[in-house]
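Protein 1 of 2
SEQ + STRUCT:
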Amino acid sequence: DTSLANTEVTTKYQEAAKIVNATLAEIIALCVPGASVLSICRAGDDSILQKCEMIYRAKKGGNPIEKGISFPVCLSVNECVCHYSPLATEDTKTLSAGDMVKIDFGCHVDGYIAVVAHTYVVPDEAAPGPITGPKADVVNAAYAAAEVAARLIKVGNTNKQVTEAMGKVAAAYGVNPIIGTMMHQMKRYVIDGSKMVMLVEDEATGQRCEECTFDAVDVAFSTGEGKPREVDTRTTVFKRQADKSYNLKMKGSRTFFSEVSKKAPVFPFTLRSFDDERGAKMGVRECLQHELVLPYQVLYERNGDFVCHVKFTVLLLPGGTSKVTGLSLPEGLFVSEGKTLDDILATEMKKKKKNRAKK
């Protein structure tokens, strides 16, 4: 039984969530002016693996329980939307005071996945007061929308209802949802299941939220157009496509793909995790050409735009919904003129109750 009715399954989700939350706190502490993005990503990945080694050491049926990274640590700064996880041979990026850093990663225990994304503003000692203006608006909007979504994703509601509610939150703060952002239902060893909720209304369907065991609430908002694009940043995060096959021609490609199949057969991975980074960069090319791996492109809004990404793991337990990963916003740090997160949440949830009463 892999459902949450099984207490052992619930415990494994919760153990993965503990590792995610502890690692997130460590990564935030490393986000200071002058810090290397590469060093922080490395430290985060290492921390996940070290913490995983400390739990479930006993073998199950003669085999060790699999545990580790379900999504490598990515730090996407300012207008960079997602998936920036640099290579040791290429990165020179460092953080500056005031940078908006989107921290995104995940962990699994026996295939049961916990993920998180958190937006952190690097402290500026020269301006220690509350953060205001568009930067505050986009952060407050994203976190409010995520809370609304978490309350609405339940049996009987439609995906479109969830999407519309988040769109109204974005409009209230004068920001835009990022096109292409999706909330996937996750299952054991499946980080991006076929059931999903779209963030942008045009992409939403009327499909009802079916009963599921586990969801990731995933919201990305921008002060810009919300239409991210690729630039010249190398893609470094990939996932093996288990349903694809091809006889690779180049020896380097075969060596690379063989290592992928052993190291990361189902979860996303970064080229940084390979001992021969240069060989990995070469080997992934032919695998991409024949769709053996799926790329997670590094996407950007326009220079000067502010982007906020928030994601947390929710367990749909018999006694109610339990948010097991992620952090709340520090009280009073982000101030939006004329609006508060509590006001937005209260207004949106009152509307939903009125709509249900009419029915």
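Protein 2 of 2
SEQ + STRUCT:
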Amino acid sequence: WLRFIKGVVDSEDIPLNISREHLQDSSVIRRLANVLTGRIIKFIKQKSTKDPENFEKFYDEYSMFLKEGVCVDNTFKQEIAELLRFERSEGDGTLIGLSEYVE
């Protein structure tokens, strides 16, 4: 679900010559993926609180990926759900987070 993120990870724990099969079965890669996912979610949360206008633009473009993440990533389901936005009941078209919606 994070396929919209592009980047390079440099780690001494990953050998340079590694087969695709070994890469998929590696516990180091799984652990690294969990750490990176957590950091990306934390970064997006910080942006949503510090700069709501830019987050709204981001959400318009990438909300489908966040919704997919809630469905497929059981480890970070709660954290991703906090990033989702819903339309207000008043129908004015503004989007708010679930915690604000419940209040």
